Amino acid sequence: MIRIEFLFILIIALNICFALKCSDVKAKNDELRKKGAVDLVGPVCTASGDYDKVQCIVAGCFCANVKTGERIGNLVRWGTKLSC
């Protein structure tokens, strides 16, 4: 599970460095899943291409910056209501 969290953090870091749109990151993750990556979740994008304000990874969910996808605040368990 740590490997998946590291991968997600790496994707977020690349997103910040290269200003990737949510839809680009989602497409890349979908491609990785097709190649056999397991437990790779998200990101969730809005219709406008921004990041949804709530993002989830295998370990839980968090509030996210809608432009970068960067985590804001703490990671909470799946199913916990977030007020972002």
From TrEMBL:
<feature type="signal peptide">
    <location>
        <begin position="1"/>
        <end position="19"/>
    </location>
</feature>
<dbReference type="InterPro" id="IPR036857">
    <property type="entry name" value="Thyroglobulin_1_sf"/>
</dbReference>
<dbReference type="InterPro" id="IPR000716">
    <property type="entry name" value="Thyroglobulin_1"/>
</dbReference>
<protein>
    <recommendedName>
        <fullName>Thyroglobulin type-1 domain-containing protein</fullName>
    </recommendedName>
</protein>
<keyword id="KW-0732">Signal</keyword>
<dbReference type="Pfam" id="PF00086">
    <property type="entry name" value="Thyroglobulin_1"/>
</dbReference>
<keyword id="KW-1015">Disulfide bond</keyword>
<feature type="domain" description="Thyroglobulin type-1">
    <location>
        <begin position="19"/>
        <end position="84"/>
    </location>
</feature>
